[in-house]
Amino acid sequence: MLKNRIIPCLDVKDGRVVKGINFVELKDAGDPVEQAKIYSDGGADEICFLDITASNENRETITDIVRKTAKECFVPLTVGGGVRTIQNITDLLLAGADKVSINTAAVKNVDFVKEASKKFGSQCIVVAIDAKKVSDNKWEVFTHGGRNKTGIDAVEFAKKVEEDGAGEILLTSMDKDGTKSGYDVDLLKTITDNTNIPVIASGGVGTLDHLYDGIVKGGASAVLAASIFHYGEYKIKDAKEYLNSKNVSVRL
Amino acid sequence: MNVTIVDYQSGNISSVINSFTEVAKGKVNLEVTSDIKKIKFSDKIVLPGQGSFKSCVDSLNQIKGLVDTLKEFAITNKKPLLGICVGLQMFADIGYEEAETKGLGWISGKVSKIDNQKGKFKLPHIGWNEIEIQKESKIFKDIKNKSHMYFVHSYEFIPEDKSVISATTDYSSKIVCSVERDNLFGTQFHPEKSDKIGLKVIDNFLKL
What we know:
The complex is a heterodimer.
Chain A: E1 5-13, E2 16-17, H1 32-41, E3 47-51, H2 59-70, E4 77-80, H3 86-95, E5 99-102, H4 104-108, H5 112-120, E6 125-135, E7 138-143, E8 148-153, H6 154-163, E9 168-173, H7 185-194, E10 199-202, H8 208-217, E11 222-225, H9 227-230, H10 236-245
Parallel strand pairs in A: 1-3, 1-11, 3-4, 4-5, 5-6, 6-9, 9-10, 10-11
Antiparallel strand pairs in A: 1-2, 6-7, 7-8
Helix pairs in contact in A: 1-2, 2-3, 8-10
Chain B: E1 2-6, H1 14-24, E2 29-33, H2 36-40, E3 44-47, H3 53-62, H4 66-76, E4 81-84, H5 86-89, E5 94-95, E6 101-102, E7 109-113, E8 125-133, E9 148-153, E10 155-159, E11 165-171, E12 173-181, E13 184-187, H6 195-207
Parallel strand pairs in B: 1-2, 1-3, 3-4, 4-13, 5-7
Antiparallel strand pairs in B: 5-6, 7-10, 8-9, 8-11, 11-12, 12-13
Helix pairs in contact in B: 1-6
């Protein structure tokens, strides 16, 4: 049986992790490579890096982090933030990323997802959708970290990227992100019901129960969280044991 | 010992290189190349594969003499070869991804889309799934039945001769996830992404 995945996400800025893990065993709380290794050793099903610097001058910094991490972590590694061109994807994959996550560029350039999945295969193309609720059961796609409104309906957009060959959707609720009040389960459910590719839930996790809701109520195939793991509130193992105790199948 | 990872300019093989490098450390001489001479004189070959069946087969055929060299290595000379993901799928006679495409024809069978039961199962099949070992396999030495491996694929290999199947995994139906016939090995899952247990599979192959 396919297991539900737990994915810790590390926000990286100028080569350093922004929200550090407060684990005692860490030598350097800001080193992304070291933190990724701790997560991978702790049973993370995948690791996600989000480069929030994402300026062209800094591409080499994230590539270098990916290169080092890929030599030490043997679970899938997804990298997002500032992925705008085919060359960006080539560089990240050559450095050792297994998947790249495309956000703004998927909206700006209507053919980008199609081109990328054709060239590299659907298995490594994740489309990150940032959605905000605009009315009852209606969500809109936002870009640039939730600052720019696009006027595009989130459900229609999800269907389009599936058709264009995206392998997965990383769905973040901009209303919930950072609130620790749980995923937007209605949004999740609407997107998972309307697509046939795996959806990774993101944005709003504050408790282990929220992970459960994302999978069981929202229909997500994987759950992504940042702060509950970073600050040492929970370890990956705690999350998995909790889900397992509630009959959600995970890799133990 | 010389082990060659065949780099035929298709898909992303960084993780395969990283994981084999990690396991091979100081024990095995690892080459990543499409140089036919080097492949001929290797002791073992790893054939990775990402992207579509068609794009992988097309890329193999782009390199003059590569397919014949691989065939001579694995079929005529019966030296160990491990195919990973589409690398395994290409053992088949035919594949249906993108367009009907002729495979290497080393193990009779076809590669077709996983029946997702009208949307009941999401595709690609992505994530960690348990393997059910069907027969003793040299690459599963010290690996427990129901171990978790990492998968990412939408197509499955259906061999005619079921005796080649060394493991299956459950996703909408029993999907063939590993084959072994004499010196020929293949995994649908990605040992290079399957954490310590995956590295063990690689170690077993290198120790053959």
